[in-house]
Specification:
heterotrimer; A alpha/beta; B alpha+beta; C alpha+beta; B: alpha+beta; eight-stranded mixed β-sheet; 32% helix; C: Jelly Rolls; four-stranded antiparallel β-sheet; 5 helices
Chain lengths: 285, 379, 168
């Protein structure tokens, strides 16, 4: 699929465009949200992303990394990326200051299939930083609440301090989005659920004929999300997962992100589960 | 010299020394002429000027993990099957500057690389190698994403292919129908007989370069000789790979087969196979910064799925074991590739067999997998 | 330990009827269990039972939230997991192996529970194997689910040991 940016600016297939850092907002320990704006006016005007897509962010001399877009698709000029410090590039991204320049290529990847979910119940299941590529879905729901039936977010993290975007939950609840939270380990002030995300399914009665599951998080978590969904008769065609692999080009050219026959950057990162099913439980694929 | 006009698809005879005229004509038109030559005991590709640069008189002895050249003094120029070098190095260089970051007035700007893609004329491209180039065309020249350097080289590439009359000990192109005869995709195609080259015209630009040379129409004798030798070559492959069309299904249905453990005991994960393979295309991106810190070049470099770094994933590794990485390589080549690009990724050149230090032979491994899977009642 | 208040059978039976696996019991099994069931309320921060207590009741949470904690010397009381409505608390009271509570149960939110007399439950299971099978099968499911949750917690799947000097 064509990135909207590449169509208008073919030279961006390999070389990045420049974006100005507007803000670096610490979120939780080791995670921050980077807000950028493309410098070139015409690029800024034609950049559009769909929920679930990612950009390749570039720092000269350090490298490039794939980061999910976590902002509102209706505000494409302020592009937010929630970054977790795991390597050289992500650590450097988190040390940027407003006014710094960062290279940007994108958007890439397949989006969450919101167009196919009109009138459906949405079950958004996330773990840790997996909520980042799902937040654009929630923004879409906020703007188009009547397009969907029940919307439920199941979200968990390691500890209460690691829960992302907590300041926004009340806004989401105000738009009739139910949020069930859990942590693996509690702290003394936590009065919420302690346990793992897949167990939150026991508090639900999803209608398998109307429910679509969108999930992103550690692969083990997603494996059990699939398990719990199927135990409730939700068919594989109604489950979508967002996968992650080492990405270098973001365009299906460099071979790094292969998972079975799929290029995660091009055939994914969002996959319908029936396509993944033959490969999902193969060890070290 | 003949008054006749060449047509596309025509086959003519050219006395061997006149091939040098062709090379000279190509150089006069701005091509860099490259071809096979012997260096450091192996057949590699490099700049050539005349037929004298070619490995006349050499044969190779190859087996799993073995390669040795022998000079017997025979008169043929193109009797050597490929060595460790591939033509992919020309279209997809081992290391290539994608662009530069230039530090300027306190900030970075991007600057494109300066060198335009060269015009190459490649002499002696074997049918398997031609098939490999066509396979890589599907990888690098896609409707949605295209590598500008590959396209630049490819559009100007002049290919003089050569039919393979003496298949090597590890060759199995016949099993994959990628040889020993080239079908299409060349500008000119040579068949080396005792006294002449038969030259077939494959493109308009090939026709234009051949037209002024002193060719004769090919005689029935020559054509028959070529046909007989090609048919014989097809029967004399060093290896075979039975039922390649079933391999995608077999491999994808047997991803956890115990035979992968067997191979993993022997594989060193050295990556030689990916280096010598003419279709492997994984690459990495590396930034290099000058000492003064004012210029960064972002390089694209060859990578290998046998390398643990390739599957590194934020604090862990998606393929931590040799078993997983070897399986990835072979399954990509013979199963996933078909899903991704519509053909198998292998052309049967046998390089990975010859150049594997552990002597792993993919024709044996694939046959074993398939046989065991079928015995177990599977696919 | 709070004393279980007595309640009218119909209130207990009504509460039991809200629990799906009770709804599926044969009437005789339901009646047998209802006889040994009482209703119990707990305020926030109220302790239901402590580590080391004798095992007297098997609880089913109706509303609220109850946390299970273990005291780790030097670290204090560590919360392992929480029970949500319809979860079973204190299942080990019905197995023959352990005789003392292995964790402390404390209400996190104001909660209401069903309390089943554990020794009486065991006796009825012994006397009536078909009831015993149904109860043990249910408890096997509870234990299996707990084990899965515990294993996933153990895997610490959100932790990313990041190495210095590596690429992303």
């Amino acid at each position: 699929m064509h990135s909207t940016l590449a169509t208008a600016h073919p030279e961006t297939l390999l070389a990045p465009l420049w974006a100005e850092v507007l803000d670096v907002q610490p979120e939780t320990p080791g995670i921050a949200t980077l807000t950028v704006r493309l410098e070139d006016a015409s690029a800024r005007a034609c950049y559009r992303f769909r929920p679930g897509q990612f950009n390749m962010l570039s720092l000269p001399g350090i490298g490039e990394a794939a980061i999910s877009v976590s902002s509102d698709p209706d505000e494409p000029e302020r592009i937010r990326h929630t970054v977790r410090a795991v390597g050289n590039v992500s650590r450097a991204l988190m040390r940027l200051q407003p006014g710094d320049r960062v290279g940007l290529r994108g958007p890439f990847g397949t989006p969450w299939p919101l167009d196919h979910c009109r009138g459906q119940d949405l079950l958004i299941v996330a773990g840790g930083i997996g909520l980042a590529p799902l937040r654009p879905v929630i923004y879409h729901v906020l703007h188009h609440r009547d397009d969907f039936g029940k919307v439920i977010v199941l979200y968990g993290a390691r500890t209460p301090k690691d829960l992302l975007y907590t300041a926004e939950y009340d806004t989401w609840r105000a738009h009739d989005i139910r949020i069930l939270l859990t942590v693996d380990r509690a702290d003394p002030d936590w009065t919420g659920t302690v346990g793992v995300v897949p167990m939150l399914f026991y508090r639900l009665r999803p209608d398998p004929k109307r429910t679509v599951v969108f999930s992103c998080g550690p692969e083990i978590m997603m494996r059990f999300v699939v398990h719990e969904s199927m135990a409730r008769r939700i068919p594989p065609e109604r489950m979508y997962l967002s996968l992650e692999r080492n990405m270098k080009c973001g365009q299906g050219l460099c071979g790094h992100c292969q998972f079975g026959p799929f290029f995660i950057c091009r055939d994914g990162p969002v996959f319908r589960f029936d396509a993944l099913a033959p490969f999902f439980n193969v060890e070290d694929l | 010299m003949t008054e006749q006009n060449l047509t596309l698809g025509a086959t003519v005879a050219l006395s061997k020394p006149h091939l040098n005229d062709l090379l000279q004509s190509l150089r006069a038109h701005g091509y860099q002429t490259h071809g096979p030559q012997v260096r450091d005991g192996a057949l590699i590709y490099g700049p050539i000027t005349t037929l004298d640069d070619l490995p006349q008189g050499y044969i190779s002895h190859q087996d799993a993990g073995r390669y040795r050249l022998e000079h017997t003094g025979h008169p043929y120029y193109f009797a050597l099957t490929p060595g460790p070098d591939t033509w992919k190095r020309y279209l997809f260089p081992r290391r290539r500057a994608l662009f530069h970051f230039q530090h300027h007035q306190g900030t970075w700007e991007t600057a494109p690389p300066h060198d335009p893609p060269p015009r190459y004329a490649l002499l002696g491209v074997r049918p398997c190698e031609l098939a490999a180039i066509q396979i890589q065309d599907q990888v690098f020249l896609r409707a949605d994403f295209t590598d500008p350097y590959y396209r630049g080289v490819r559009e100007n590439l002049f290919i003089i292919a050569v039919n393979c009359l003496r298949p090597g000990d590890t060759c199995f192109c016949a099993s994959l129908e990628t040889g020993p005869e080239a079908r299409e995709g060349y500008d000119l195609l040579l068949t080396e007989l005792d006294d002449v080259f038969l030259v077939s015209v494959g493109s308009e630009i090939g026709r234009q370069h051949l037209q002024p040379l002193p060719w004769e129409p090919a005689s029935a004798f020559h054509l028959n000789q070529a046909r007989r030798q090609l048919d014989a070559a097809r029967q004399r492959m060093g290896r075979t790979l039975p039922d390649p069309q079933h391999l995608p299904e077999t491999l994808l249905a047997n991803l956890e087969h115990p035979h992968w453990d067997d191979i993993a005991q022997r594989c060193l994960s050295c990556g030689n196979c990916t280096q010598v393979c003419p279709t492997c295309f994984c690459w990495d991106v590396q930034d290099e910064i000058t000492l003064a810190g004012d210029r960064v070049t972002r390089f694209r470099v060859w990578d290998s799925c046998l390398s643990p770094q390739l599957s590194y994933l934020a604090g862990g590794n998606a393929r931590p074991s040799i078993r997983a990485r070897y399986r990835q390589w072979l399954t990509h080549k013979f199963a996933s590739w078909e899903r991704q690009f519509g053909t198998l990724g292998c052309v049967g050149c046998g390089r990975c067999i010859t150049w594997c230090p552990a002597g792993i032979d993919i024709t044996v491994e694939l046959a074993t997998l398939r046989t065991q899977a079928l015995h177990a009642g599977g696919v | 330990m709070a004393s279980p208040p007595s309640a009218s059978p119909s209130a207990v039976e009504q509460a039991l009827q809200t629990i799906p696996w009770f709804q599926r019991l044969q009437p005789s099994h339901f009646a047998s269990l209802a006889q040994i069931a009482t209703l119990r309320d707990a305020q926030a921060n109220e302790v239901l039972f402590r580590e080391g207590d004798p095992e007297d009741y098997l609880y089913i949470l109706l509303t609220g939230r109850v946390a299970l904690e273990i005291n780790v010397p030097g670290r204090g009381r560590t919360r392992l997991m929480t029970a949500e409505p319809l979860d079973v608390i204190g299942w080990s009271s019905v197995t023959p192996v352990v005789r003392r509570r292995t964790a402390t149960a404390v209400a996190v939110l104001p909660s209401s529970l069903i309390a089943l007399d554990a020794p009486a439950l065991l006796q009825r299971c012994e006397e009536n194997p078909s009831l015993g099978y149904v109860v043990m099968r249910r408890l096997a499911n509870v234990v299996a689910q707990r084990l899965l949750v515990t294993r996933l917690q153990l895997l610490d799947m959100y932790a990313h040991p990041s190495k210095e000097g590596c690429d992303d």
